[in-house]
Specification:
It is built from 5 helices and 6 strands; from the N terminus they run αααααββββββ. It is α+β, with helices and mostly antiparallel strands. Helix 1 packs across helix 2. A 6-stranded antiparallel sheet has the order 1-2-3-6-5-4, with helices on one face. The chain is rod-shaped and about 150 Å long. The chain folds into 2 domains: 32 residues; 119 residues, Phosphorylase Kinase, domain 1 (2-Layer Sandwich).
Length: 212
């Protein structure tokens, strides 16, 4: 764009032109004002063109949302896999060793009771109701105490008893669940201790006594 001529030059050119035409001063002043009004104003700095709205934040939000959703889906897949994965289990031999060791340790009872029914009622922390074994397996015994214990990693009970011959024995009971799926009903011998394992009334039971 060509710059406008300086104002003084315009005034002089107008004055000289109309002087030759024999115009008076007032007429010249009026014409000058009209020319100045019609003349373009000095070029103004153009405001910067508006740019398109910055879409980067929207793109960032979309990417973040996608990553969050992908993370949630991944967690859901892991949760399903964990639910489908078999829970840890114990073998019959390992369980027999555990029962034999607890029997030999002969720890002090948590409860002293005169009968099995009394001890069963006082074992309030158990998530199952203890059951007196059938006479076929334990025809006669005398209870000397009871205590809480862990059987195969599960909360259970140990009943300290004496058989008809007065020999100390230990009866273990725990709720039968998937952790014992590899334990079969059988009799094991561990370091001079005989351990009989069987299932009864929804419980897994183990009777430990001296093998001699």
């Amino acid at each position: 764009m060509t710059d406008s001529p300086p104002r003084d030059a315009v005034d002089r050119a107008v004055a000289d032109h109309y002087a030759r035409k024999s115009l008076d001063a007032s007429t010249l002043a009026a014409l000058r004002d009209q020319i100045q009004a019609a003349s373009p104003s000095p070029a103004r700095s153009q405001s910067p063109a508006r740019t398109a709205p910055d879409r980067e934040p929207a793109h960032t939000t979309t990417r973040l949302r996608t990553r969050v959703m992908a993370g949630l889906v991944g967690l859901a897949v892991v949760a399903v896999a964990l639910l489908a994965w078999p829970s840890p289990s114990i073998t019959g031999d390992a369980l027999a060793h555990e029962i034999a060791s607890s029997h030999v340790m002969n720890l002090a009872p948590d409860i002293e009771a005169g009968s099995f029914d009394e001890a069963r009622q006082r074992l309030e922390k158990l998530d199952f109701a203890a059951v007196r074994p059938t006479d076929e397996i334990m025809p006669d015994f005398e209870l000397t105490g009871a205590r809480y214990t862990r059987v195969g990693g599960e909360m259970g009970a140990q009943f300290q008893i004496e058989d008809a011959a007065g020999r100390p024995c230990s009866l273990f009971q725990v709720r039968d669940n998937d952790a014992f799926r590899h334990v079969r009903d059988a009799t094991y011998e561990v370091d001079g201790v005989r351990v009989q394992v069987w299932r009864e009334a929804g419980l897994l039971m183990g009777l430990a006594e001296s093998a001699g």
